[in-house]
Amino acid sequence: MDDLKSLNELFYHAKMLLNLRRKTNVSRSSNFTVFTALRNETDEEKTHTTFLYEMLRPDGQHGMGDEFLSEFFKIVLGEDYQPGAIIVQECHIDSNDDNYGRPDLCIETTTDRFPIEVKIYAPDQPRQIERYFEFARKKSKYPKVYYLTLDGHEPTSQGKCNSENIICISFANEIHTWLTNCSMKAKEKPDVVAVITQYLSLIEKLTNEQQDDVFMDAIVDLIGNSKENYECASILSKKLDVARTIKMRQVFNDIKNHLESNTLIKNLPKEYLYLDQNIDNYYSRKKSELLRTPKLCFEIKRIGDLRIFLCVEITWYLYYCVFFTNNSWDSMIFEEQKNTLKTAFNNPYWTNRISSHAWKNWYVWGRYLPNFKKELNFKELSELYPELYDAVRYKQIMDTIYKEFDDNVESIINTGFPKDPSNIVTWQ
Question: According to DSSP H, which parts of 272-344 are helical?
Fold first, then answer.
């Protein structure tokens, strides 16, 4: 009873502080940056790759020559600097045989080639890292591929190379440290420092590393005020991932039950790909382990050796999509299968999309849930996510998701696309 009383008191005081924090909206680190204003905070190509490319170029507008590049070699690549290195954005590799694709960045020297793949939220492509490794091996004696993500996690199984020469780096650590050093080197150029500072704020926002405000400090003090408070907080922290796993399972099960109540869906083959296992491991996995995507799949079409699926997935955000694979779930899809796939649906959107499709990618299109925006963030647990724990808001959110499916399932099964194909995402 005393333990329960201590727990209730801790909850009460913490809730009071959080409510006050919410009302005052105080934070030491502003969420506003130019990237926020332009609404492209998570755009891998236009924001992150382009910014890194500009910073790395010795002839970049920063006017610092190769000082930033030299620091990048030391801090991020872990290599001795090689003067005269060339920076290439979206470096196209050979299209012969199985080698195709384009690393987001590639640093070329006289003796080495360092491909860098930038990932914010986009899924890995089939054999992606393996292909980039082969590209590096054509020039480098000791080839390696740098896999840059927000938190430094490894590629998923479909993107992973069997080689151990995958260097996982993160925006939170290596890139943050490198840019901090760059800002110190550029202290005589306030305009450059201002831009770097804005980008560092964006990294801190995306990686949830912003400094806590006074209200969060007060909660820390509250926990440290007594042995009972600490023990209660410790118990709660150990059970949070269990609660999050239960909530993710509830969302998937409710979507599955709703979809299976649809007559058209009910008659489709079901492929609940590692659904339970991947949900259970989503929060409990170690950082060194692969993040396996929880997913719920329904086969909507077979054509030749290809199978086309309607799928609900969570990488960081909740979304649904249409993707294809072959009968054996081999990740390799060949260019010559394009003409076959184009005939799967009598729909100009489908034909045009497949005609321009990047064959490193299974995914034809995707759309975020519940309302076309990146809102249900199951990784950072931010934005709309906490509202899932309020019964009224949960029902409202799920009803919006159900309506999205009710409005579009028939069109997807018959044409491969939603009724209104705007607000879709295509991953290249």
Answer: 275-284, 338-342
Task: Residue count of the chain, please give it.
Answer: 428
Alpha-carbon torsion (413, 414, 416, 420), positive or negative? negative
What is the SS3 assignment for 160? Answer: coil
Of the candidates 336, 274, 268, 265, the one whose C-alpha atom is nearest the C-alpha of residue 305 is 336
Alpha carbon 191 to chain centroid, angstroms: 30
Name the pTM for this structure.
0.57
pLDDT at 212 over 60: no
- Whether 138 and 280 map to the same domain: the answer is no
pLDDT for 95: 46
pLDDT digits (tens, 9 = 90+) for 313-367: 998 899 999 988 876 665 566 667 778 888 899 888 898 888 887 665 688 899 9
Task: Specify whether 254 is located in the same domain as 400.
Answer: yes
Looking at residues 35-42, what average pLDDT do you find? 60
| Together in a domain, 260 and 143 | no
Please report where in the chains the tokens 């979206």 appear, as a residue.
Answer: 90
Which residue's structure tokens are 């490794």?
133
- Is the domain of 401 the same as that of 325? yes
HSE of 35, CA atoms in CB hemisphere, 13 A: 25
Please spell the DSSP secondary structure of 187-237, one letter per residue: TT-HHHHHHHHHHHHHHHHHTT-PPP-HHHHHHHHHHTT-HHHHHHHHHHH
Nearest by Cα to 332 from 178, 185, 159: 159
265 and 193 assigned to the same domain: no
Give the pLDDT of residue 34: 60
Q: Cα separations (Å) of 375 from 35, 67, 368, 371, 381?
A: 17, 39, 8, 8, 10
**67 vs 125 pLDDT, higher one:** 67
Domain of 305? 239-415
Q: Give the total number of structural domains in the chain.
A: 3
Contacts of 92 (CB under 8 A, 6+ apart): 102
Instruction: Report the C-alpha gap between 127 and 133 in whole angstroms.
Output: 10
In a domain, 7, yes or no: yes
Q: How large is the average pLDDT for residues 193-199?
A: 87
Q: In angstroms, rounded to a whole number, what is the distance separating the alpha carbons of residues 206 and 38? A: 16
Does 211 score more than 50 pLDDT? no
pLDDT tens per residue across span 289-317:
556 788 898 999 998 888 899 999 998 89
Average pLDDT over residues 45-55: 86
421: in domain: no
> Of 191, 225, 259, which closes a domain?
225
Say which residues have a Cβ less than 8 Å from residue 401's Cβ, sequence separation at least 6.
255, 369, 370
